[in-house]
Amino acid sequence: MRRHALTALVACVFVTLWGVVLTEKVCYFSQEPDASQSGRLRWVMPGNKEDRCACTSTRPGPVNVQPVRWSHQPFYTDTPIFTNDQEDIHDYFDCHDACRPNPCRHGGRCENLGGYFKCHCVDGCGGDRCQVQDACCSNPCQDGGSCVTRGDAFECLCFNGFGGDGCQLAPASDYTEGM
Question: Where in the chain are disulfide-linked cysteines found (predicted)?
Fold first, then answer.
């Protein structure tokens, strides 16, 4: 019994650490001559803005004595940032996402439209930020039931034999089978 518990604990720690490793993206500022600055040595980070905004930490990298041919226009700077703070990284590279944190209330889905956002509200919610709600906004119907607003109240239309005010009662045949 102890051996199985230890094996499960080791597996849990491994999966947790592996998940952390997979979500980390270390980015490196290297130094190279900048042709647009008469070959002056400058800090550079390759990749496009999306790549840079995915960095979870930034570190100093190698010095290249010859300019590198990058597939995307690299980011040149005279003042690099070396940090593990993602908020600082996002500020530095101007990676602000209008949907973080999610401005949409009551389970609304935020769509980033490049500097501004649009909320897609769940049924029963409305407004620019899904802040206006009727009785169905909280999604009170369970097991696939549909909610219909009736004035200030709601009614659940239950499917597949489910019942109750919120479709929470399973069909009677589910209770009698196997007895």
Answer: 121-130, 158-167
Q: Where are the beta strands (DSSP E) in 2-145?
A: 26-34, 40-45, 57-63, 75-77, 109-112, 117-120, 125-126, 132-133
User: Which H or E run contains 146?
Assistant: strand 146-150
pTM, two decimals, is 0.47
User: pLDDT tens digits, residue range 17-54?
Assistant: 344 444 789 999 999 999 889 999 999 998 888 889 88
The class of domain 97-133 in CATH terms is mainly beta
Q: Which residues pair with 30 in a beta bridge?
A: 44
For the domain 134-179, what is the CATH code? Answer: 2.10.25.10
User: How many other CB atoms are there within 10 angstroms of residue 7's CB atom?
Assistant: 10
Domain layout of the chain by residue ranges: 25-92, 97-133, 134-179
Q: How far apart are CA 129 and CA 153, in angstroms?
A: 22
Q: Is 9 helix (H, G, I), strand (E, B) or coil?
A: helix
